[in-house]
Every structure is written in C-alpha cells, then in structure tokens.
Amino acid sequence: MIKIKLDKYKDAFNTYDQDVISESLENYINSVVKMIPLNDVKINIEGKFEEEEKDKLILAIHKTYEKKNDYLDYIDKHDHIFRLVLFLIGVILILLSYILKNIFREISLIAGWVIIWEVIYDLLFNSVKRKRKKHLYKELSNCQITFKKENKNE
After folding, report:
1. 65-103 confidence digits (pLDDT tens)
2. pLDDT tens across 18-32, in order?
3. How far apart are CA 136 and CA 122, in angstroms?
4. Residue 87 and residue 67: Cα distance in Å, rounded?
5. CB-based burial label for 61 (10 Å; 0-12, 13-18, 19+)
6. How far is residue 81 CA from its own chain's centroid?
7. Shortest CA distance to 150 belongs to which of 3, 27, 35, 28?
C-alpha cells in the first residue's frame, strides 16, 4: 500500500494541468510502488478533503497513469517499425560488405553488425524495462484509492 499525506489539496496537482498529478507526487508514487507487489497496488491518502476533491484526485491519479500507459503503447508501436527498418539496414550493410573492397568492406560489415546488435539489445533490455513500466502504470491507472481523515492529535 502506498501511503500519501497531503496537507494542501492543490499540492497534488500539476501547476499547468489540473487533470494530472504533480511531478513530485508522481515521483513519490513511482519510487514507492517499486517496493510493493504489483498485485497489491493500493493508495491511501491522508488529509481533509471534500467528496468532490476526493473524486477529482482519484480521477487525476488514474488519468495520469493512463496517459503514461498510452504513451508507452505509442512508443512500442513505433519502436517495432523502427527496429525492423534498422534490422533491414544492418542486413543490407552486411550483404553490401561482400561486394565492396578494401576498407569500405570492413566499415560496411562492422556497421551492419553494430546496427543488428543495437536492435537485439533494444529488444532484450529496453523493451523489457518498458513492458515492466507499462504493467506498473496499468496497475496504477486502475488501483484502489482510499482516503483517511487527517489526525490532528498526533
């Protein structure tokens, strides 16, 4: 469970876009959510809020992470096309190295293998990180959010 204490309602929102949460709140949520199991993502907000403010805050948190998830979907879609194009360029450069002579042959061969390696590296490492983030954002965009009244006696 992610526990958040908000003294001021306005602190939760981005200064320029009131439909999404502030960067500092987002950073806090992102850092804490990494330490809890993904199937147990719940947010508990402590503070004194009206019902309308609670609804707006819930909507803002969910919308922030929905936008982030949509952005990663967009990147994945275009990244596949980009990787395919780069892979084809790498293969063409390797095939071209059999035609060329001298130093151009070596440059073409090395460049082709470097491009193919970068595509494979992106597939194996960057893609996995992005999928993890996507799963995390998906969980946060649908997580349960509860409110606890601030206890002034503590």
Report:
1. 898 899 988 888 888 889 999 999 999 999 998 888 888
2. 778 888 888 888 887
3. 20
4. 30
5. buried
6. 20
7. 3
